[in-house]
Structure to design on (400 residues):
């Protein structure tokens, strides 16, 4: 297997190439540096690593399964498709991987409240779960549009004891929820911690969330090598902020022969303004305390974005993804809302696995690509979450 050599990412200032950093007021930089210091301390502590490892196994249910989707592979007639089953995790998605780490960090730092945003509700449910486990109050900000789309997750968050804050301003979706949560955090950053839900925001969050999520790729790499004596030819995962994809990709970055594809939402079409294809159509800019690719209006403001999947409708993206795009190490493709819906139903009816609408973007890319490849090639899809949260919404769309 050919090897590439990547230096440390990020650097000491939190930059991945030219992306990332701390584009925030000096007083908030001091708070973020305290979080970084505490994170670097706690990650070196054997007792923390042992506790996290135990919770990954006994609470989340890791390692998540690697499944050969034989019927789907046969139906498509090309590459063999494999699924990394993050949908089988406790809480139903990959988000719990970093939420456990963030909740334990908050407890270690003596914080009195954990604040976060959520789009599809998976991060909200996972964080409310983790906070209930460690015994720390939790406040989740969620756009009103997403509250109406993701009712099952809203109910779960309330059952788990979090305070849910509906956000009605702007487009009432993920970007507005981030703004609202960050404003609440700024009221008392010494005692609160903002548990960012993806590999976005100011340093150290893109690094910290990536590190907790990298268990996905580490497991997948070991599972594939153990079963087949080789690595997959292609990896694919959906990209909004980008934590499930960077979680899968990180362990394979140095393997030149493994091709990686992040799939963004083309929404109602790249020729419309109803998409969230940040890396495809955006340009370098600033949002939420970091430099990354951003979809902007002519006035330089973040553009209102759209995706059928609530967890992907974000006008920015993780800085490491921005860097990997510029390097050409990861390719970024898109899938439309309709392709996503078709993939959701196809995987459900061919393999009996209902994927999240977010994950369905990656499934759509695989469905499109597998027939163009020979049968000895392999595609590994990260099924980042399960689709029961989307079932009522999909049923309404499709008149089921």
């Amino acid at each position: 297997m050919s090897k590439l050599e990547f230096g440390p990412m990020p650097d000491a200032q939190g930059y991945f190439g030219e992306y990332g950093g701390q584009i925030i007021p000096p007083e908030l930089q001091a708070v973020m540096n305290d979080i970084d210091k505490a994170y670097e301390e706690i990650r070196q502590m054997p007792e923390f690593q042992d506790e996290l490892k135990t919770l990954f196994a006994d609470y989340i249910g890791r390692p998540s399964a690697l499944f050969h989707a034989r019927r789907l592979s046969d139906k498509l007639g090309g590459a063999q498709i494999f699924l990394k089953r993050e949908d089988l995790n406790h809480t139903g998605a990959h988000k719990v991987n970093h939420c456990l780490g963030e909740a334990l960090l908050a407890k270690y730092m003596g914080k009195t409240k954990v604040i976060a945003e959520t789009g599809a509700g998976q991060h909200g449910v996972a964080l409310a779960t983790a906070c209930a486990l460690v015994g720390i109050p939790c406040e989740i900000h969620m756009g009103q549009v997403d509250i109406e789309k993701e009712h099952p997750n809203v109910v779960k968050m309330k059952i788990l004891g979090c305070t849910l804050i509906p956000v009605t301003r702007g487009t009432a979706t993920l970007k507005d929820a981030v703004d609202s949560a960050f404003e609440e955090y700024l009221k008392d950053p010494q005692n609160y911690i903002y548990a960012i839900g993806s590999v976005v925001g100011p340093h150290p969050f893109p690094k910290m969330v990536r590190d907790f999520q990298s268990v996905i790729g580490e497991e997948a790499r070991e599972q594939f090598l153990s079963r087949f004596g080789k690595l997959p030819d292609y990896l694919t995962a959906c990209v909004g902020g980008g934590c499930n994809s960077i979680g899968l990709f990180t362990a394979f970055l140095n393997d030149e022969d493994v091709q990686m594809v992040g799939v963004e939402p083309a929404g109602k079409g790249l020729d419309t303004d109803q998409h969230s294809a940040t890396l495809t159509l955006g340009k370098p800019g600033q949002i939420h305390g970091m430099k990354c690719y951003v979809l902007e209006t002519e006035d330089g403001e973040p553009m209102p974005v759209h995706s059928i999947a609530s967890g992907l409708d974000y006008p920015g993206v993780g800085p490491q993804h921005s860097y990997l795009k510029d390097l050409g190490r990861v390719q970024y493709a898109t899938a439309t809302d309709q392709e996503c819906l078709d993939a959701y139903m196809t995987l459900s009816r061919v393999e009996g696995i209902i994927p999240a609408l977010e994950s369905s973007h990656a499934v759509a890319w695989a469905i499109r690509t597998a027939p163009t490849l020979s049968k000895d090639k392999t595609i590994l899809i990260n099924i980042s979450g399960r689709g029961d949260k989307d079932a009522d919404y999909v049923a309404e769309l499709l008149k089921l």
The domain at 61-92+214-398 is CATH 3.40.50.1100 (Rossmann fold). The first helix runs from residue 26 to 43. The chain has 16 helices and 14 strands. The longest strand covers residues 259-267.
